[in-house]
Amino acid sequence: MTEYSEYNPIVTFVYFLAVAGLAMFIMNPVLLTVSLLGSVVCFCLKRNKGEKANVLIFVGLFVVLALINPLFHHNGVTVLFLINDNPITLEALAYGVTASVMVISVLFWFRSFSALMTGDKLLYVFGRFSPKFSLMISMALRYIPLFAERSKKIKDARRAMGAYEEENLWDSVKGGVKVFISLTGQSLEKGIITADSMEARGYGSGKRTFFSRYVFKKKDGIALVLILLLTAAVMAAKMAGVLDFSFYPAAEGELFSVWAVGAYACYGVLTLLPLMSEITEREKWRYLRSKI
Amino acid sequence: MVVIKNSVIRNIIRIGVPFLLMPAVVAVGVFVFDDKSYAFVSLAVALLSCVLFVAGFEKKRTGTGRMALVAVLVALTVTGRFIPYFKPVAALTVITGMYLGGEAGFLVGAMAAVISNFYFGQGPWTPFQMLAWGMIGFIAGLFCDILKRGKLPLIIYGVFSGIFFSFVMDVWTVLWYNRTFDGSMYLAAIVTALPYTVIYAVSNVFFLLILKKPIGGKLERICLKYRL
Fold first, then answer.
1. For the segment B6-23, what is each residue's pLDDT rounded down to a tens digit?
2. In which residue ranges of chain A is pLDDT below 50?
3. Phi, psi of A139, deg, nearest 5
4. Residue A55 or B138, more confident
5. CA A250 to CA A93: how far, in whole Å?
6. Angle between helix A9-25 and A119-126 (nearest 10)
7. What is the Cα gyration radius of chain B?
8. Residues A15 and A151 in one domain
9. Closest-CA residue to B112 (of B78, B72, B82)
10. Who's near A157: CB < 8 A, 6+ residues apart?
């Protein structure tokens, strides 16, 4: 096992698709709680320093989302209290909490996804289906830092010409628009030069070949099979109706039947795969170091 | 990278996947998940319509110069999204659609959504943003003659595209949270998003009016100069 960010991008992509997809489309309170825990653990494994503010926003969002549903839906048998003659029911509140657990856990999964699946990895996954589209995406990805550089040059040149920006908003907007327009003109011309150079080097004359530093190894295959098996198990449980749970009019459905617990376990293992690979890797490293 | 070498198989995948998968996905959404899982179905359909479009683009022979221009415009649009509050994303997409055609407009809108979300956060909303911005660019390409004529059509289209984007995204918000479509919740979502809708519409009109002449002129000139 390797550190989980070092797997082949296909494995990473399928993993997040499975783990977030199952959470998004199976409305089962226990399963979603497992998903939330797993997503937070995964998020903490690769945490950036500036993410604390985001977590606070997520907490606020959780509360708001949980409270929205009972204000809009009044079906449910257990009435808690009345607001303007509209009953606020326990069932609607429970649904709201469950839905917001779902939303927040998916947000956390996608945070980790964004941190792991960088542009080049996503291109590796999708490039084979659409060489042209992915070529344009990789060109655009390269242009973004390049444009930052070029616009700084244009700004400096303007300053040298005496076009100082005043400290008021309108002036800085006007200056920004001017820089943007000349950046556009320059970059379009240079883009055509890039295209000419590509054609001169034989782009489009034969089959496309790709460079990539990712290799599909045996351990990637093992991880992929494991992910697919666990996902299939949870899907099967869903299709068999084991995970069904309905909120209205009264909460209905057995949450802890034997099969359901099995499905939760499968999903739990799935959500903890990053943690497990991280721990095995760390232990292996410690063991190797202690031998030296 | 593994490329599917056999061109016949590649074409079957390209054409067959969207056409077969779309109904299949609807069927899966109805039978496997609850019969009310519109969220799943809508997400899959949004994703697949983007796939369908890219598949069509892939089959065409597009000049390298045109592709480079689209890549430049995508990068410009992405950098534009870093401006706080007033973002020229839709305006640049519309201008591309007007001067380079609807297909280029769709590509710029859709790719700008994917790439800028590397910075702003990917999520299940990405396909909807791709579709919404892409459609804004595509429709601009269809009506390019009217839009080029004067300021009034441009202003109307800017306002329309701001409202269109907001409404499409709200559909997804409601479906995601509520699973089924709920009129009153949709109304509430639209009302809470109203300030953003206004900002979208205002910034679209503002940037369309400012950028149409310089950037549109540059695009026209470059197409003329290099015979694209």
1. 666 666 665 666 566 666
2. 1-2
3. -65, -45
4. B138
5. 12
6. 90
7. 19
8. no
9. B78
10. none
Indicate the CATH number of B63-225 among 1.10.10.10, 3.30.365.10, 3.20.20.150, 1.10.1760.20: 1.10.1760.20
Query: Do the Cβ atoms of A16 and A5 come closer than 8 Å?
Result: no
Taking the CA of residue B160 and the nearest CA in chain A, the distance in Å comes to 23
Q: Which of A20, A242, A192 is nearest to B124 (CA)?
A: A20
Nearest to B222 among A113, A192, A208 (CB): A192
How many contacts (CB atoms, under 8 Å) link A and B? 167
Encode burial over A8-39: b for 16+ CB neighbours within 10 A, e otherwise. bbbbbbbbbebbbbbbbbbbbbbbbebbbebb
Give the closest-approach CA distance of A16 to chain B in angstroms.
Answer: 11
A211, A216, A220, A224: CA torsion to nearest 10:
90
d(CA A182, CA A188): 10
Nearest neighbour of A185 by CB, restricted to B121, B124, B218:
B218
Q: Rounded to whole angstroms, how far apart are CA atoms A24 and B179?
A: 10
Does residue B119 have a pLDDT over 90? Answer: no
Omega of the bond leading into A249 within 30 degrees of 0 (cis)? yes
- Helix, strand and coil in chain B, % to nearest 5: 80, 0, 20
- pLDDT, tens digit, 9 for 90 and up, residues B72-117: 999 999 998 888 878 899 999 999 999 998 888 999 999 999 889 8
Q: Point out the residue among A99, A118, A235 whose CB comes nearest to the CB of B177.
A: A99
Using the predicted structure, report yes or no on whether residue B188 has a pLDDT greater than 60: yes
| Cβ contact, residue pair A191, B72, below 8 Å | yes
The residue among A155, A172, A200 that closes a domain is: A200
Q: What is the pLDDT of residue A70?
A: 82
